[in-house]
Each structure stands twice: as structure tokens, then as C-alpha cells.
Amino acid sequence: MKIEQFPDPYLNVPWETLGARVLSSGQQVAVTLGYPAAGMADDLSASLARYLGVEHVDLDLRFRPPEGRGAAAPGRIRHIIAVASGKGGVGKSTTAVNLALALEKEGARVGLLDADIYGPSQGMMLGVAEGRRPEVKDEKFFLPIKAHGIQAMSMSFLITEETPMVWRGPMVSNALQQLLGQTLWDDLDYLIVDMPPGTGDIQLTLSQRVPVSGATIVTTPQDIALLDARKGVEMFRKVDIPVLGIIENMSTFRCPECGHESHVFGSGGGERIAAQCQAPLLGQLPLNMEIREQADGGTPTVARDPDGEIARVYRHAARYMAARLWQLAATGSDAGAVEISMTDD
């Protein structure tokens, strides 16, 4: 079998079609994918061995991001990914920071922009000390603050926690554009933008004035959350931003005493909206106190325990999301959900 015909485990499309670089000599295989995937190297090596009918494959797995839609700010940004939700309270900011950290753990250069001007939270979640301010270069540009291996910028770095943002819509939109345009990002593969909830001014500003490569929608299984999530999906599609997938938070609750799992907020909601919107379900996160405590404590789950059970879900979702972006860049198609053909790491 030609190794170039190996179907990508996330996209179920031959690597040859996607433009992956593949070199092989005996059991030595070098593969360059368009999404970061360091965490699945062992599983991929085993899958390739089965595909080729050999006992072992010595895999050299590399990552080269596809070309993006152009730099949107000083310093190169290949892809901007919006993480959004139709309503508040679904864990969007926690998801955004963990996705950013997951992409970094998988081998990418990542930035995180907190676009929630009214209620910025990423400073606290990343453990940035209150009162720490970004450095200024040439009296014009902010240098992003580095935390847990990623670059970050947030309104919380520029104000105190007690300062209320009593601004009208146009002022908020201008503030977002300044944060993005005056931050000197350092050669990013991905900039994750933590959007405020809803479909208002900031969402439209980002969608219309910034070359966003794709959006990921965060929801819970609740019917009301699903209705709002669908609105978010339609908003992005109306401004020609592809929806990369859906992430369902608070999917199940596992009793710490007996281990019984309960669907506190309902079941199957993420799968239903993913099917209706023809976008894949990237991952399902449990209702777990540790996720909230770790984020509130400044060391989100992926940073605290990168190889733990919950972090593996975030890393799986981040790989899947980035793989979808690669597919769009390589083929121009927006395929829906597919079955994952390889065991998650």
C-alpha cells in the first residue's frame, strides 16, 4: 500500500489529497501534517504499522501549518480561530484557554486574545499577577505576556479588576481592534480569540474586519444553550467564516463516591446541533469541579496535568479543530463530522 494513501485519522481523507509530506524508507517514516499532533505520535505509529502490514514503524512526526488568510496584526499570525458561544455560562473561556494550551502542547506556536472587553478573565486563568502590565515597544505596540508557553493579551492586563468597563458598543469594538492590531504577536501558528458570549458588536467587528480562519462553538446539552449555539453558528456562516466544530461542556457528571455518571443537563445535545449544523462534534467535556478550580487558580487543566484524562479530551479537540482548518486550506471543502479511525491517546 502507498503510505501517501493513508487516511488521516481525523479527516478520513488520504494524506496525498491533503498535501501532507511523506517520506519513507523501510520502517523509517517521516510525515509532516498540517496540524500539530505530537500527542498522538505513538498511536499514529501503530496505525501506520497496521496499514503497511509491518510490525513496527519508526515515525518522525512533524507539523507545518497551512498558509493562512494573511497577517491580521503586527507580527505574523497564520490563523485566527474564534472560540464563541451563543450565551454565557457554558464554559467558553475555560475551553478557549485549554484549547490554546493544548495546541501548544501538541507543538504549535499559540497566542490567546481575550476579546471579552466587559468581563476579561484570561489574566486570572493564566495566573498573570494582578497589576502586571505588558511592555510597550516603540511607544506603539504591546508585547504579549507569556504564560504557560503561550502568548496572551487581555484587557485585564490594562485595567484593574475593580475597574468597570462602562462603554458603548463602538468603543468596545475600537478597543478590540486596538488590542489585536497593536499587539506585537511573535510568529503565531494560531491565535485563539476568546469571544464574549452572544452575537453583538464585538462578534461582528471581528468577523467583518479581521481575517478569521474559522470558529469553534461551545455549548452545553441544555436545550436553551443549543438554541443560542445555533444562532452563533448561523452568524459566522453569514459572514463566510467556517465553523470548525462544536464542543459540548458539562456533558456528564461522574459521582466521585460511586463513579455513576449522570446527564445533569440532558444528553446528546452537542451531537444534535453538530448534525444540524453539519459541523463535527470536536469533544465532550465532563462537569468536573477540577476544571473550574484549576482555571480559577491560574493553572488550567492542560497546563496542570497535560497527560491526564480531561487534558486528553482538550488535546483531542484541539487536534481535530486544527485538522479541520488544514482540510479547508488544502481542499477548500468544509466536510462535516467523520468517524475517528484511531484510538485517542
Describe the protein's architecture and organization.
- The protein has helices spanning 15-18, 41-52, 92-105, 122-125, 169-181, 201-209, 223-238, 269-277, 289-296, 301-304, 309-331; strands at residues 21-25, 28-33, 58-63, 77-84, 110-114, 136-137, 141-142, 145-147, 150-154, 188-194, 214-219, 243-248, 253-254, 261-262, 281-284.
- The chain has 345 residues and is an alpha/beta fold.
- It has 2 domains: 3-63, no CATH class; 77-329, 3-Layer(aba) Sandwich (Rossmann fold).
- It has an 8-stranded mixed β-sheet, with helices on both faces. Strands 1-2-3 form a 3-stranded mixed β-sheet, covered by helices on one side. Strands 6-7 form a two-stranded antiparallel ribbon.
- The longest helix has 23 residues, at 309-331.
- It is globular.
- Residues 334-345 have low confidence and may be disordered.
- pLDDT < 50 stretches: 334-345
Summarize the helix and strand pattern as letters.
Answer: HEEHEEHEHEEEEHEHEHEEEHEHHH
Would you identify the CATH H-level superfamily of the largest domain? P-loop containing nucleotide triphosphate hydrolases
Average pLDDT number: 84
Order of strands, widest sheet: 8-9-5-10-4-11-12-15
Query: In the residues, how many domains can be counted?
Result: 2
Main CATH class of the largest domain: Alpha Beta
- Strand tally, please? 15
- Give the helix proportion (percent range): 25-40%
How many alpha or pi helices? 11
What is this structure, in a nutshell?
This protein is an alpha/beta fold. Helix content is about 35%, strand content about 20%.
